[in-house]
Amino acid sequence: MRGIQRHACFPVEISMSANTGFQPEYLSLAQAAVITGVSAKTLRRAIKAKRLHCYYVGRLVRIAAVELRRWIESGGAAPDASPR
Questions:
Q1: Which of 32, 40, 41 is nearest to 70 (CA)?
Q2: DSSP code of 79?
Q3: CA angle 6, 54, 70 (to 5 degrees)
Q4: pLDDT, tens digit, for every residue of 25-76?
Q5: Who's near 33: CB < 8 A, 6+ residues apart?
Q6: β-pair partners for 55
Q7: Residue 75 has what DSSP assignment?
Q8: How far apart are the C-alpha atoms of 20 and 7, rounded to whole Å?
Q9: How far is it between the farthest Cα atoms of the chain?
Q10: For residue 36, what are the CA distances in angstroms to 1, 2, 9, 10, 77?
């Protein structure tokens, strides 16, 4: 898997408009959490509910940047408005 940075604190940005510069094809849960502003636990819940597609590389979970973009655009990363 080319372009995967294994360090959890690797700053990654997915440009929603232009594809300029290096963008990893697959993201770790930590990277996807930083991009979306939600926790890795929230991403795991979305994966379990089949709202977000992921790939397993051994025990590692990877999310395709395209899938993450679709999930964000569909409102998947929007804050929950229901009171608790």
A1: 32
A2: P
A3: 105
A4: 999 999 999 999 999 999 999 999 999 999 999 999 999 999 999 999 998 8
A5: 39, 40, 42, 43
A6: 62
A7: T
A8: 22
A9: 43
A10: 22, 22, 14, 14, 6
Q: What H or E segment, with its residue span, contains residue 26?
A: strand 26-28
- CA–CA gap between residue 13 and residue 82 (Å, rounded): 29
Structure tokens belonging to residue 45: 């819940």
**Which are the contacts of 50, defined by CB distance < 8 A and separation ≥ 6?**
none
Helix (H, G, I), strand (E, B) or coil at 73: helix
- Partners of 27 in beta bridges: 63
Take residue 71 and report the two structure tokens written for it.
């999930």
The CA distance from 53 to 58, in Å, is 16
